[in-house]
Write the structure tokens for this entry.
Amino acid sequence: MPEIRFFLEWILIFTVFGLVLFRKMTFLQAYAFFIPFFGIDYDLGVRYTISQLTLLFLNFLFFLFLFSKTELAKFRGFNSSIVLFLLYAFVSSFLLSTFVIEFIPTQNPGFLRNEGRYISQIINYSLLFSIFYISYNYLHSLKDVMLLLKYLLYGIIVVSVIGVVQQIIYAFTGFDILPLIREELVSPTYNYFGVQMVRICSLAGEPKSLGMYAAIGIIIIKVLNSFDIKMFKYQKFYYRLFFVVLIFTLSSSGMIMLFILWIVTEIMLRYFNVIPPFKS
């Protein structure tokens, strides 16, 4: 039901930016929190997620501060390799959009989706690589990094809890509060021991996105446990929650990601001494 999605989205947005306004959270932490909410997006010529829009605003504030304080000479976090890649990405996007790709405006209307596609791609590349200099200038200690990681996990926890509620309501009522396809109100379903279930997507956009973020949450907590770092009071519960959510999504992408990351972290734990041996 669109009204439920709209209500949840704006409750989250007002809560997070209220915390930012009262300095209980930074914009960088808000960005980290919103990363899993891939399903909260807005059409600005092309679709941008709430995390991308938050990062865009963070960039605006960052450069406004640099110019207002005349501290542009102190700009750090960018190197020649990144600059060369961005130049390559900009030029290739422009050439492909102008001379190679044949657009069908009736299928994807809008200038930024057709002839001006290179502009939207340039914006996307710039936002992606802005994380380098934003992180360089805002993260000054391991404590800052761990706090940012904590807010990312907060986001995964919230999107996971919403997904579980979505599944419970569907199992008892047959009503999907957050359908995958908004216009047709249709979501993939399956039968589990006689109980009709839905492939949950929560506010992550689609089941595979939610499954992949659940897998990331599992691995992060696994690594935290290896350091004996207790970031949350109910850390073991969240660990199990992410497994449940991954199963509810039936996401092959999420399960493959979990398998690969699990193997990689186990190798790092046991053979390369990158992090202490995992304590079971």
About this structure: Residues 233 and 239 are 12 Å apart (CA to CA). Confidence is low (pLDDT under 50) at residues 276-280.
